Amino acid sequence: MTTQMKDRPEAEPQQRSRRRRIRVLLAKAGLDGHDRGVKVIARALRDAGMEVIYTGLHNTPEQVVRAALQEDVDVIGVSILSGAHMTIFPRILELMRQHGLDDVILVGGGIIPDDDKAALKAMGVREIFGPGASLHEIVRFIEEAVAERDRDAQPEQDQHQAPNAS
User: Fold this and answer.
1) Angle formed at CA 2 by CA 78 and CA 33, multiple of 5 degrees
2) pLDDT tens sequence across 70-107
3) Residue 88: inside a domain, yes or no?
4) How far from each other are the two terminal CA atoms of the chain, in whole angstroms?
5) Is the pLDDT of residue 23 over 90?
6) Does 7 fall in a domain?
7) Stretch 118-125: mean pLDDT, rounded?
8) Are 23 and 70 a contacting pair, CB within 8 Å?
């Protein structure tokens, strides 16, 4: 049984501003059952003031994107240690585009070969964090990526506002 996902209304990304804390969805995709690392990252993001939604183990790309839509997140972080990254990330990106999540930042973590990292970044994954990435580095990247996205969206917001009637 499949559940239909509703796309995000087109006007909504323009309403996204720093009116609230950064919302991050963290997911373990595929058959990987190792979740200690993602839980440590969840706590670090929370301690940095972000709102974190952790979906748990064994998510499909459809479940990840559905949760991102429902939770109205700024960032999706996917942890994959199973070697399925070249299947799972492209599918998540495809679903994100289909459902209007073009402004949501996708990052990943796990043991991913350098050649695959380059290919995933070319597809649209913003960053891949491997073993040894510091929690500070991950927090800083997310804060800066969201701030950059919001700055880029600001001129668009200004164009849609009606001129002041004096």
Assistant:
1) 35
2) 999 999 999 999 899 999 999 999 999 999 999 999 99
3) yes
4) 57
5) yes
6) no
7) 98
8) no
**pLDDT at residue 9, rounded to an integer:** 53
User: Buried b vs exposed e over 91-125: b needs ≥16 C-beta within 10 Å?
Assistant: bbbebbeebbbebbbbbbbbebeeeebebbeeebb
12 in any annotated domain? no
Residue with tokens 């930042």: 105
Residue type at position 80 = I
- Is the pLDDT at 12 greater than 80? The verdict is no
Q: Are 96 and 57 in contact (CB under 8 A)?
A: no
CATH assignment at residue 97: 3.40.50.280
Residue 157 belongs to some domain of the structure: no
Identify the H or E element spanning 52. Answer: strand 51-54
- Helix 85-98 crosses helix 114-123 at what angle (to 10 degrees)? 10
Q: Give burial (CB, 10 Å; 0-12/13-18/19+) of 52.
A: buried
Q: How many whole angstroms from its chain centre is CA 152?
A: 17
Q: Supply the pLDDT for residue 31.
A: 86
* Comparison of pLDDT for 6 and 152, the residue scoring more: 152
Greater confidence (13 vs 30) lies with: 30
Residue 33's domain comprises 21-145
With beta carbons less than 8 A apart as the criterion, state whether 27 and 77 touch: yes
Contacts of residue 141, Cβ cutoff 8 Å, sequence gap at least 6: 107, 127, 129
